[in-house]
Amino acid sequence: MELIGSLFGLMVFLLCAVIWMLPIVLIAASSRTEGKEKAAWILAVIFVTWFAWVFYLLLAPLKRPDEDRYPYRYRY
Q1: What does the pLDDT look like over 39-55, one tens digit per residue?
Q2: Measured between alpha carbons, how far is 18 from 67 in angstroms, rounded to an integer?
Q3: Most buried residue, 17, 25, 30, 64, by CB count within 10 Å?
Q4: Is the pTM of this model over 0.70?
């Protein structure tokens, strides 16, 4: 009986760990930001949790990329 309780506790812990890491993985895999800005968003999620991820979805990227670096994006 004690083994079943331990396994259940382990499963709950693993589920919570996966849910906690989900925003970090989603930001790391996203192409909306890059470099230092991506690192800053990941650190914000680690220290501020899900609120930072919601702000990431609403606000990222914080500034438009330079037209010199991405000349094909903003030509109409």
Answers
A1: 998 999 999 887 888 88
A2: 38
A3: 30
A4: no
Residue 43: predicted pLDDT: 92
Short-list 22, 33, 25, 29, CA closest to 56 = 33
| Distance between start and end Cα atoms, the chain | 68
Domain ranges in the chain are 19-61
Tell me if 54 sits within 8 A of 76, measured CB to CB: no
45 class by beta-carbon count within 10 Å (0-12 exposed, 13-18 middle, 19+ buried): buried
**Rounded to an integer, what distance in angstroms lies between the CA atom of residue 41 and that of residue 30?**
11
Question: pLDDT grade, residue 72 (50/70/90)?
Answer: low
